[in-house]
Amino acid sequence: MYRYVLKRLMLMIVIIICSAIVAFTLMYLAPGDPARLQLGQGISQAVLEARRHELGIDRPYIVQLATYLYNAFVRFDFGTSWQYGVSVMEELLSRLPRTLMIGIPAMILNVTIGTIMGVIAAIHEGKWQDSSLMLLAMVLVSAPDFWVALMLIILFCVKLNWLPSYGIDSLKSYVLPIICSALPVIAVNARQARSSMLEVIRADFITTARAKGQKSGTIIRKHMFPNALMPIITGIAGGLSKTVAGSPVIETVFSIPGVGAFLLTGVNYRDRPIVCGCVIFFALFTSIVVLLMDLCYAFLDPRIKAQYSK
Amino acid sequence: MGLKVKRPIALLLTAVLVLSSLSGCGATTSSKSSGESTSGAAVSAGNSESGLTESNGLYSKVVVAVSADMEDLTPCKVNGVTRSNVFWSIYESLFDFDEELNLVPSLATGYTIVSDTEWDIEIYKKIYDSDGNHITADDVVHAVEWLVESGNNIRYNIFASIEKIDDYTVRYHWKEAPTSTSDLEWPLTRTFIFSQTAWESHNFAVDPVGTANFTVESFVTGSSLTLKANYNYWAQNTDEDVSMRCRFHDTTVDTIVYNTIAEPFSAVVALEMGTVDFCDYVPLNSLAEFAEGGTHSERYNVESTLGTEYYYFLPNMADGVSGIVGKDLDLRLAIYYALDNEVVAKAMSGDNVVLKTLGCSSYPDHEASWDDDPNYINTYDVAAAKKYLEASNYNGEEIVIIGLANEECKNAMMMIQSLLVDSLGLNVSLQTYEKSFLLTVMAERTGWDFCVANTGGSILVDSWNRVISQEGNDGWTYGWLKDDKLQQLYDTARAGGTHDAEHMKEVIDYAFSIGCIYALSVRSSSIVYSKDITDVCYREGYWVIGASKFNTNK
Amino acid sequence: MRFLTQESKRNIRNEVAMEAEMKLKVKQSSLFADFSRRMVKGWSSKLGFILFVFIVLACLIGPLLSPYRVNEIFLDQINASPSAAHWFGCDSMGRDLLTRILYGGRYSLNLGLSAALLSALVGSTFGLVAGYFGSAVDGFIMRFMDVWSALPGMLLCILVSAFLGAGFYSTVIALTVGNIPYVARMIRGQVLSERTKEYMEAAKTINCSKLSILFTHLLPNTVQPVIITTTMAIGGTISMAASLSFIGLGIQPPTPEWGALLADGRAYIRVFPHLIMFPGIAIALTVLSLNLLGDGLRNALDPKLRD
To answer: Whole-structure pTM over 0.95, yes or no?
Structure first.
């Protein structure tokens, strides 16, 4: 078991380093001169050169890359933002809770609702509950998330005045972002839950249980649900990554200063420290989530556990 | 492991994951500044050791909506309209400009002209910043030299060096005798002075320490900035004569909160709900409900002023993308005559007023007669445009127009493209960029043929700086033009003794004759503010909340 | 014991080859018949198909039938609400919204289709090569895919968009890169399970070239799940393209791509909600129809549901 975890951790670190290299290279090759971005126009070449030297961007690519990787992964220093003048690490740490404040409740919401929808649809397979629930899930996944956000803002903020439409002043201002992040992913979880429940329903041991005379409710609770749990756990991992990935757009619409908005500002200003810092964060986050879910998997499924405990 | 044991473990693992992430969030909810609606209760100044007079109560809190984050509060980053208002509440410079653009003492008591190129400036003896550091000539020299070394010293053209004479006097060495306000504007009124001790112990980007009448209480980047009145403001507590200083250093409110609300409609909603008291970017079609007769007019006032920021349409006189725009005057004239800038102004979200010449009436040195003088800006003549097009060598090359990524600029570009394609059949394509990125694209000679951007300044001739003057860009204008006669006319128009209508007209006429600039429209900005603000204080055309008058009788 | 002359050896080889080819043909024809039978059964997939065809036709033909041109500006009709003259109203520059939506649909659909197909193509190639050649090649490609998928799709899109700049082709590439690892993994899984089947051995014995094995034998049999996910990926890429335009990367003005239309209208949602309602509904309906279609395909091709 330990070897498996260790191997996965090593792999994770390699993946994160590679993502950092990719992001760094893309931003290095992207057009735009950071010295000019900071100083504006009408500056003499000498001053521009001095600023470039100060920022360290006049050195060859490999040197810059090596320095950046060393700073980021050994000293945990993501550098100073060219546009904001603050340490990227500090900014990320202060913005992280806001993004998670949206991401995690959204994930809980969409897993819960999706699973319930999928289970009900599976139990009533073929009947109107099944078709209508799946259609509803389909509709939810089809509408683009920022459009749903704008529609909900019109309804809840403009017409009803129940909720604030921007900022992070109170817990109420997180309600709409959470709902908007959760909605598109519900369908994926619903479908996943439905098909895994269907598989279980048709399994032999359920027929046996029914033959033995067990009540439906007990069958659902004790036999169907635990076995269908695995793909649901996958749904959690996928859901969390997707909601965190969707954060740039949601955070823009709701003026929430989270990591996604930070990445977007960095991209618009071609601010390499910000972009690389955010990319490392996202890669780390996704990898950790996947690793934890795989561990859950291995822990719960006796077949996989047996494979690794040798 | 049995089935019964596995499920709770799975739930436990999930719960641990969730809780550990949520615990990180809990810490932040307490440190956020609240944006609750203001109630206007007067806070009497007597309950703190302040030097504010007992008879003036301070209004407690005002919330201002801003469309973009402050980003960086380092003294040199004072570009952008919103930031001036904020920076002026945190930092001070040696002098200020009054309405007639005379130098008025701020941190300095006055200047003595020692020789043509040497000015002695004396500062007040009891200046303290908000940390309590005493400001002396050493700090002045440090602040100025830091600005010069950092490369952020814009328009320091005649500045040579600065030296300390004694504890409260510095000597400025100029390269040549200063003749106009533009020479002195940045060195003396836009350079913020701060304490060297404070500089070395604080990160001014997020935690600035200045000498002005407000301090930064909290700064959540991307979200809000809270300023609190500085009860230890040096100018309130000093026994020196500060009566000559401008009134916008007065403090009339205790707390100012700047909330970043990027979407204009959210700002309007916030105004309606009363969570915001002041907003300067309410969309035109929503203004009516706050103005007289509107649904919210009992709580709000609307004030419209013709701004001084105007949009221009600048050709790239180097090769650019087409290779022909900068070299072919006939092509440019064809384009200018085919542009109906009334229609463009109308397309730019409505509150833009069309320009008829290279300037508008909100500038003190603008002459109304220039608007009536026929030129290609105020003339829309497709037939003439077609004639010029035939005379030119245009052969279907692609013309690239770049511009800012905001909505009105995009609409202007689309309108321009539509006009050029429809009437002249040109091959025009568009590219939009964020502001700082736009400047780097303009700094290349290739990659663009025309640029739509905005400019401004305290006087009209200063607003021409980027597009006509060849000083800033290593001997070229921002449109890659090098023309000695233009530079000479411009320098004459700008110099103190010859800064008049006649010389400025010469610049305009010559610029039109070589077709190097076209002006589009000027924004009329409207501010919507709560009726608790009885009088908005303006400084050089920008609103200053901290010194505005409030209704403290509630 | 039969005496194996050259001729009889050749006969035996031919017989084996013919049997192998028969097996291949049988496999393919029954598959197709099965598929089309089940495709027309479900009502939701029929609805999806009809809706999608309708949208495509509307976007292709609609702008030609419209009395207005795409960029024709009516300054007196700025932000006009829906009326008899302008069925969907006008946008902030007085251009007819319906025409712009239909014309923009061409771009959105084009983006979605190109990106989805391109990612299917590239991903399939990776997956096929990895699955078939195995060992070192497989390990290398799969690790490569792991790194590729470490970043969520949207983020990769944003990064590539920033790098390539704005414009149609750069957006297509940005949208493609997100999907590739997913497709590659799926094809590889299929290839691994197909590799052990008999027809593969049969193909080897008749000395098929490696290329022909990959593309004429393996690909048709592993492509089913990819067809399903590609169909749904088209919807996903249309949605992502809209998101990119909404945040300012992607297509440049005045192209009326649906996401750009939403971005234009967002300042006015309080007073002129029609500006964002109609483009949003267009996106939602298109993606919905594609999802229904994909779902129907999945049901039709699912081997577990085969009788």
So the answer is: no
